[in-house]
What does this fold into?
Amino acid sequence: MIFGIHVGQQNIAVDELRKLWTYVDQNGFGWVSVWDHMYCRTNDADPHHEAVALMAALAMDTKNVEIGNLVFCAAYRNPGILVKSLITVDHLSGGRANAGIGAGWHEPEFKAFGIPFLPVKGRMDMLEEHAASMKSLLNNEVTNYDGEHVQLTNAYMNPRPLRDKLPLWVGGAGEKRTLRIAARHADGWNAPYIGPEAYSHKMNVLDQWCEKEGRDPAEITRSVNLGFYMSADEAGANAARQKYFDDFQEQAEDRKDGHLIGSPQQVIDRIGEFQSAGIHRINIAFRPPVDWDALHTFVEEVMPAFK
It folds into this structure.
């Protein structure tokens, strides 16, 4: 099992973020990612940090972990400029960067910054074009692309990534479009906040799309993000569960399968269910503030159970 950290950089100071990913880098994790939003889901006015700049800082502060974003919103950046930024991050990190792309969903930030919020089909079409053009930009020195949403003409991409392949991830769980786009273009696929049974089903759908697209399913790395509501000990398990229900309120019951909730042993048992379903990469997703006691316990008691 490979464990990673995914953090939404809302309501958190940069110093706390740097402390978090430095700790992760030194304690056996294999991945650190941030998300791509301009507004918090909690409140439009809450403080929130930009993703590309944070990835550059993350590259400089760490030495071991793969670094990425789950995921950049296709509508927010020209794909050529985004890939140029990510290759620069790759060089800053010594070859540990990953590219992630998704369709976007948080309508208030689109409207606030004057970005058209297209219907689902339009956003999925845009995701397809961004994934295809980014794949070319990452793998070729020169790219031409003529689409409805993306136009590139003799777009040079130098320097090249430090590795032979800078992985391109597609994020999302939609079975008709997202998973087919992943099968066509992605080196990795990530789904957020779903349980082991649902995730196993999505993996089977991805495999079916790979067969139709002529891809070897083994070429696509898979991971899941799981919300982190673990207590440091058995005594705090009820409080951790209550915090989860307070955070998600009327959605809590429907979404609980995609979170790690309760005591360390309950979390070990839950991760075991994911492992039995064939899932071998789990990112624990923090909604700040960071519960440092729980994170220490995760490192000391939970991770060793899966070595």
Q: What stands out?
A: The first helix runs from residue 14 to 25.
